[in-house]
Specification:
Order of helices and strands: EHEEEEEHEHEHEEHEEEEEEE
Helix content: 10-25%
Strand content: 25-35%
Largest sheet: 12 strands, mixed
Length: 297
């Protein structure tokens, strides 16, 4: 079972960012150009409570329509990012209808919903597990750390707990850029599709043909009932996570590592496995969780 094809291109994209249409410091034009300069192929403009522009191509760059919605819950602040949604949907997404209504409406309109910064929002297992029809969650959010936030950028522990309880979500890394003075062009997804269109991008997300990254590259991810194998750009650490607290062979460290394997036969009871690779600069890339019951030889 191969997750990525050697013959299909990867596209670099950011799915969460803000402009002067809400509380961002750059205009839409300035933000698009800045990400173009950093080698991005697509972005989603996800201003608060408004769809700032329709999906369109901008000089070869795919600009996806988007929105971010906030819901004040007891002890939690749930944010939902929508991508690829029509502008006329925004006025119908009133907070009083609740997050599940918005998620379902986005999907019905052809878009996709993403749970934003779960760690920053202090989301509980009950909240995450209670949301359905969600396409992904942010494992890393570049805005949710110093100098403007405490260290809540990494949501992997929360999302692993949810996955261990049966709510397995694909993982994206995003910038959530507002100020564009250091938090931009840091975290992204690499998405594999034959062509760069909204339809192909959303289809690739549905099929989990993408990975999250801050720089390291994943070239190949192959799986069968006995092992998971990853091939990547040179890194210093390769880690495997699952629903079990202890399994041998989870951590490999060294210089210039470009591959590793994880033995699925060492311990029974694993329901999901995901991999994280870390380069010498501390930058990570993350695979989506692999659901063990879905593995096909």
């Amino acid at each position: 079972m191969e997750y990525f094809s050697p013959d299909v291109p990867f596209w670099k994209g950011n799915l969460h960012m803000h402009t002067t249409e809400s509380d961002g410091r750059l205009s839409m034009r300035e933000a698009i150009e800045l990400y173009r300069e950093h080698g991005y192929h697509f972005v989603a403009l996800t201003d608060h409570d408004v769809v700032a522009c329709p999906t369109h191509m901008d000089g070869g760059m795919l600009v996806l329509s988007g929105i971010e919605l906030a819901y004040e819950l007891p002890s939690e602040e749930l944010h939902i990012v929508g991508i690829g949604i029509p502008g006329e949907l925004a006025p119908r997404l009133e907070p009083r209808f609740g997050p599940q209504y918005a998620i379902d409406a986005m999907r019905a309109a052809g878009g996709r919903a993403i749970i934003a910064h779960p760690a920053w929002s202090l989301l509980s297992l009950g909240t995450i597990s209670g949301l359905h029809n969600v396409s992904a969650a942010e494992i890393y959010n570049s805005m949710s750390t110093m100098p403007r936030n405490c260290l809540r950028a990494d949501s992997s522990p929360i999302l692993d707990i949810a996955a261990a309880h049966g709510h397995v979500l694909p993982l994206v890394a995003v910038d959530d850029a507002h100020f564009y003075d250091g938090e931009h062009a840091k975290s992204f997804i690499m998405l594999q599709a034959e062509t760069l269109t909204q339809a192909s991008a959303l289809h690739a997300m549905d099929e989990r043909r993408f990975y999250a990254s801050q720089g390291p590259q994943i070239h190949r991810l192959s799986v069968n009932s006995k092992r998971i194998r990853i091939e990547c750009s040179p890194v210093s650490t390769i880690l495997f996570y699952s629903n079990l607290s202890w399994v041998t062979g989870r951590c490999r460290m060294g210089e210039g590592l470009t591959e590793s394997e994880y033995d699925l036969t060492l311990q029974s009871g694993e329901t999901f496995v995901r991999c994280q690779i870390i380069d010498p600069e501390g930058k990570s890339a993350w695979t989506n969780p692999i659901v063990i019951s879905e593995i096909r030889d």
